[in-house]
């Protein structure tokens, strides 16, 4: 079997992993305990990975920066020999938008990106400055450009007036200046509480109201978004923005020495064989969340591949009497 077809077939199996994590996390929706929700998703994901015949390694994962449960960098996953000699890189966030689940807010997913060994950017979990756009504006963004220039150039690339452009920004105090600069251009702002993976992807979807993502968010989320944007031919630019000395030390220990380097989608994802798999937990712009009704659980998932370029939406009905 060709390597790319093996990786793509694994994406189909990984749906069962993200489904398991999503269902486990959904049991904590609105209960005010983010670490319990995260822990449930991590445990369910780890256990489900053990049932898949592959040999994988986590190269970047979310959790360390928040001192939350995680699948740790360097952890091996899988039970079998598929791709054993070459291995599979895994970027993972069992529960993207932990607070959204804990406090009943929208836009939570469970997500995995996978590819051949060496295909995904390997680093520690910290923070990055980011810009993400779709294909039409992929060539006009510059992380060093003034915010005003970026908004104007994206608007021109999309054939819009700046007043018609919508910029997604994570609602955090650190973005107060960014928000003011965007508003001065006349553009619209879509503030969101958590979930910049989904928002980065939304910026690249033709039927989305989001035109670009700007701001500082997680590094794991940047790699996960880059995997999806590879399938959509979008672009993400990012640069390390560690929040304190502890983060700087963690990144240096992971081999990061240049904090000024601008990383592109092709730096984060170095193969067209990478796949993206996600399952909704709480409904957002990308996926419908977990639905429990009539003695069954319904999950909604998405698989994306860059070669060939595909988006596959999957609705699964899990019947209580048959669930483990």
Write the layout of secondary structure elements.
Elements: H1 3-26, H2 34-49, E1 56-61, E2 76-77, E3 88-96, H3 98-102, E4 108-116, E5 127-133, H4 147-158, E6 166-170, H5 176-184, E7 188-192, H6 196-202, E8 212-218, H7 219-232, E9 235-240, H8 245-253, H9 265-268, E10 275-282, E11 291-293, E12 296-306, E13 309-319
Parallel strand pairs: 1-3, 6-7, 6-8
Antiparallel strand pairs: 1-2, 3-4, 4-10, 5-8, 5-9, 10-12, 11-12, 12-13
Textual characterization of the structure:
This protein is an alpha+beta fold and 324 residues long. It has two domains: 168 residues, Fructose-1,6-Bisphosphatase, Chain A, domain 1 (2-Layer Sandwich); 142 residues, D-Maltodextrin-Binding Protein, domain 2 (3-Layer(aba) Sandwich). Helix content is 31%, strand content 27%. Strands 1, 2, 3, 4, 10, 11, 12 and 13 form an eight-stranded mixed β-sheet that branches. The radius of gyration is 19 Å and the shape is globular. The model has no long low-confidence stretch (mean pLDDT 91).
The 3D shape can be described as globular
Number of domains: 2
Summed up, the helix count is: 9
Briefly note the CATH topology name of the largest domain: Fructose-1,6-Bisphosphatase, Chain A, domain 1
Distance between the termini: 31 Å
Q: How much helicity do the residues have?
A: 25-40%
Work out the radius of gyration: 19 Å
Run of helices and strands: HHEEEHEEHEHEHEHEHHEEEE
Estimate what percentage of residues fall within beta strands.
25-35%
Q: What integer is the average pLDDT? A: 91
Let me know the CATH homologous superfamily of the largest domain: Fructose-1,6-Bisphosphatase, subunit A, domain 1
Largest sheet: 8 strands, mixed
Helix/strand/pairing class, anyone?
alpha+beta
């Amino acid at each position: 079997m060709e390597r790319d077809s093996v990786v793509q077939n694994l994406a189909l199996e990984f749906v069962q992993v993200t489904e398991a994590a999503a269902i486990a996390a959904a049991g904590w929706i609105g209960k005010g305990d983010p670490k319990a929700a995260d822990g449930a998703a991590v445990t369910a994901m780890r256990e489900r990975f053990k049932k898949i015949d592959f040999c994988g390694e986590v190269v970047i994962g979310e959790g360390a920066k928040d001192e939350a449960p995680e699948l740790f960098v360097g952890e091996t996953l899988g039970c079998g020999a598929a791709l054993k000699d070459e291995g599979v890189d895994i970027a993972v966030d069992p529960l993207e938008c932990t607070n959204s689940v804990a406090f009943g807010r929208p836009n939570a997913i469970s997500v995995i990106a996978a590819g051949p060994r060496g295909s995904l950017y390997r680093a520690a979990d910290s923070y990055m400055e980011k810009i993400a756009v779709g294909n039409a504006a992929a060539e006009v963004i510059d992380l060093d450009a003034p915010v005003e220039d970026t908004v104007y150039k994206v608007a021109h690339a999309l054939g819009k007036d700046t007043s018609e452009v919508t910029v997604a920004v994570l609602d955090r105090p650190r973005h107060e200046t960014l928000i003011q600069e965007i508003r001065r251009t006349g553009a619209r702002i879509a503030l969101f509480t958590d979930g910049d993976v989904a928002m980065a992807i939304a910026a690249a979807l033709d039927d989305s109201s989001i035109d670009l993502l700007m701001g500082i968010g997680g590094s794991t989320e940047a790699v996960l978004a880059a995997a999806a944007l590879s399938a959509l031919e979008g672009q993400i630019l990012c640069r390390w923005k560690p929040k304190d000395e502890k983060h700087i030390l963690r990144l240096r220990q992971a081999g990061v020495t240049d904090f000024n380097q601008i990383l592109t989608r092709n730096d984060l994802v170095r193969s067209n064989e990478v796949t993206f798999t996600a399952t909704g937990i709480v409904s957002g712009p990308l996926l419908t969340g977990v639905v429990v009704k009539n003695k069954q659980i319904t999950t909604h998932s998405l698989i994306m591949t860059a070669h060939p370029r595909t988006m596959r939406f999957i609705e699964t009905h899990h019947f209580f009497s048959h669930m483990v």
